[in-house]
Specification:
about 425 residues, alpha+beta, four-stranded mixed sheet, 19 strands, about 30% helix
Length: about 425
């Protein structure tokens, strides 16, 4: 446990976590000698942390989590299925587009200690963490026989997915076949986006929303709830006061990136040149070991920004990713320059406007197989996807082959004009 002035806060957080396990009936005490022959005894530990608000940087709460050391589990004995759904970023943007287009109010909730609500199929034994031990009448240390999932078990995500999916179907929700993280009602009164233990609801019927929330509360323990949805992941959601549009941006996340990586936030409003030749940037010396770690960390951060809200830096991130195995001083200079550009233009947002009564009519996909420099005879392929003029998804990658197809100039300019319009 961390020492210092925060120790008492962490002790209180550990007590709350122990209470969560007890209230959810996650385990029952068992004698070690009663364990089946060949059963694995999984160790546990308590992890302490502090949760900060991604948008304003303020302290939200102290956390303690009792986790299992799942690396000792044996497949086919202690676990079988481990698959759990992960939402697509394009689905998140589509959800926001629907809410903005129809002018729907939104509601947010999370499930308290979600994995502790999931029943286990396997018989699993675990040692209690320090501070929660118990002895039997003979002085022998007792163990836990887990009845429900514990964080750290390989199948925890899968068991929670199965459990919550059954709850939502019972409450009349229909799961999308395109992305299992998206749910809706047949009567179109509600659409739900689920990410592990967090849920965002856009609704047109308050009674239907109340019925859904009541049904969820009867099955699991709800955590925080609010009708003021301000973020999704670490993406800020800005709704206009008149409700005519929504914006997605990562202004706070980019500012934290500049501070964490100690980058001079000077104004640099020029992107990397689209014809950047990575082969010509290999003349300087390699970065030292600590420099490589810094390069990869910053590259990963910019990649996340590029995939979430900033399509305009996607090409630069893709090009600099080619040097991730052996980055040089020149690559680091270019990467910092890209970070400075992202910071200088951090106010840019994805814009989704209100157009009530509209239904999806057009799906536009623009592809350019000649974006960037054809290094090593392999072109970059860029793609943008629009639904009714709203930017939903994009991507950029190096082609594994040499393409002889070239998109005409008018088509390229049309794609660029559409994208610029959506990034105002």
């Amino acid at each position: 446990m961390p020492d210092g002035p925060l120790k008492s806060a962490h002790i209180a957080a550990r007590g709350d976590e122990g209470q969560n396990l007890h209230m959810a009936e996650v385990y029952e005490w068992a004698r070690r000698r009663d364990m089946p022959k060949g059963a694995t005894l999984i160790k546990t530990m308590t992890i302490y942390g502090i949760k900060w608000n991604d948008l304003n940087g303020l302290l939200e709460k102290f956390k303690a989590r009792i986790v299992a050391k799942g690396y000792s589990q044996r497949k086919g004995v202690d676990f079988n299925d481990t698959y759990a759904t992960t939402p697509k970023l394009s689905t998140m943007r589509y959800f926001i587009m629907i809410a903005a287009r129809e002018g729907l109010p939104m509601y947010e909730f999370d499930i308290k200690a979600a994995y502790l609500n999931a029943d286990l199929e396997e018989e699993i034994y675990a040692t209690p963490p320090l501070g929660m031990e118990r002895q039997d009448e003979n002085g022998e240390q007792m163990v836990w026989r887990l009845k429900k999932a514990l964080y750290g078990l390989k199948q925890s995500g899968n068991r929670w997915m199965v459990r919550f999916t059954a709850v939502l179907r019972k409450l009349g929700m229909t799961q999308s076949r395109a992305d299992t993280s998206l749910w809706y009602r047949i009567d179109r009164t509600m659409i739900l986006f689920v990410h592990t233990d967090d849920g965002k609801v856009a609704y047109s019927d308050r009674a239907a929303l109340d019925a859904l929330l009541k049904g969820i509360r009867e099955e699991v323990t709800m955590g925080a709830e609010t009708d003021k949805v301000e973020r999704m992941f670490n993406i800020a959601i800005e709704t206009s006061t008149d409700g005519t549009h929504m914006k997605l941006n990562q202004r706070a996340y980019v500012e934290n990136m500049m501070r964490d990586h100690k980058i001079d936030p000077r104004e640099w409003r020029a992107m990397l040149p689209p014809d950047l030749d990575m082969d010509k940037e290999c003349g300087t010396e390699l970065l030292p070991r600590e420099g490589i770690s810094e390069y990869l960390s910053l590259l990963q951060t910019l990649h996340w920004v590029a995939r979430c809200t900033r399509w305009d830096i996607q090409t630069g991130v893709t090009l600099l990713s080619q040097a991730s195995s052996a980055p040089r001083q020149s690559h680091m200079k270019l990467l910092r320059r890209l970070a400075q550009y992202t910071h200088a233009t951090r106010g840019r947002s994805l814009l989704y406007k209100k157009t009530p009564g509209a239904r999806m009519r057009t799906l536009d996909v623009f592809v350019d197989a000649s974006a960037g420099h054809a290094s090593k005879n392999r072109n970059l392929c860029g793609v943008t996807v629009f639904i009714d003029g709203n930017l939903i998804d994009w991507g950029c990658k190096t082609q594994p082959y040499l393409s002889l197809i070239h998109i005409s100039e008018p088509t390229r300019q049309e794609a660029i004009s559409y994208a610029v319009f959506c990034l105002k």
